[in-house]
Amino acid sequence: MQLGFYFDQTRCVGCLTCAVACKDWYDIPAGPINWIHVKEIEKGRYPHLFLSYLFTACNHCENPPCVKVCPTEAIIKRESDGIVVVNSERCIGKKECGSKCLKVCPWNVPQFGLEENAKMQKCNLCMERLEQGQQTICVEACPMCALDVGPINDLREKYGDNVDAVGFTYSEKYKPSIVFKPRFHDDK
Length: 188
Description:
Layout: E1 3-8, H1 17-25, E2 37-45, E3 48-56, H2 65-69, E4 75-77, E5 84-86, H3 94-97, H4 100-104, H5 127-131, H6 137-141, E6 147-151, H7 152-159, E7 178-181
Parallel strand pairs: 1-7
Antiparallel strand pairs: 1-6, 2-3, 4-5
């Protein structure tokens, strides 16, 4: 089984509730570290303006590049559910390894704090909540119901198998575990 995300780009209003809930749940201090990013995408010229948002967290790829480049095997992909997790005790930090995981991730997901030789951290798909039968904190917090998490095959059956969205570039090589309902801009 491979778990993944569904993101409805037509429903997201950029409120950042998902990102704030994640930071709060995991006691991530104020500052540059965010396991979830919501990117604002603006296009067009008046009167044909376009505004959309893109939710980004770890995509828990089917073939994650970060796992392959980690020199200490601190990043693993769990066989039971496909969640890509970091063992911070094994991570030697951004200075020691040169941030290889960040450099290879097409979506810039790995995060490093500002402290000397900070260790990598990222979304773990709230694996402890899922193991307790709860939903992820970002899905639970989203007031617009723009997010869902579950087995990727179930998400594709429920929402379709679209991997395109404004601002997102799918990688056939890594196969990110995400399905979108996109909001496309009608170029005028």
